[in-house]
Design goal:
mainly alpha; two-stranded antiparallel sheet; about 5% strand
Length: about 150
């Protein structure tokens, strides 16, 4: 399973929203600038996230996006699958029917274990876990907390 740039940007965009006080709306331009993601690409990604029930889109003056649930309740797996589609548990299930190893092989078993491991890690990791880890890393490098860089106050 390969996570594309869209999946990566989806996680980064939601991390941006998670750093804001609960219910505070962020415009797509703010998220785009803050995370250095092309605006038009991010807008398409956020459409998928809205359809997946991870963000709410608010229209009109003062409109933008907010998390649909608390960051502690959103897993990285949900974010990635909202953009990338469901993770296939075994690559070999997608193999061509004429594969001479159809029916199983040691390599297919290894791929299945690797994918199950990745899926498990993404399922156990919440959006708030990632935000906390990133903020800790930035503080250890001597940088300011990202919230203050973005002008966000609690």
């Amino acid at each position: 399973m390969q996570i594309t740039r869209a999946g990566e940007y989806a996680v980064l965009g939601l991390m941006h929203l998670a750093r804001r006080p609960a219910g505070q709306v962020a415009m797509i331009d703010q998220v785009s600038r803050g995370e250095q993601i092309p605006r038009s690409f991010l807008a398409k990604i956020f459409q998928h996230l809205a359809k997946g029930g991870l963000v709410r889109s608010l229209r009109g003056a003062g409109g933008g996006f907010v998390l649909a649930r608390a960051a502690e309740q959103i897993t990285v797996l949900e974010i990635v699958e909202s953009v990338e589609g469901k993770m296939v548990s075994q690559l070999c299930k997608l193999a061509k029917p004429d594969c001479k190893h159809a029916g199983g092989c040691a390599l297919c078993g290894l791929f299945e274990q690797a994918q199950d491991g990745l899926k498990d890690v993404l399922l156990r990791t919440t959006l708030s876990d990632l935000v906390r880890q990133q903020d800790d890393l930035e503080l250890m490098r001597g940088g300011k907390d990202r919230r203050s860089k973005l002008g966000i106050r609690n």
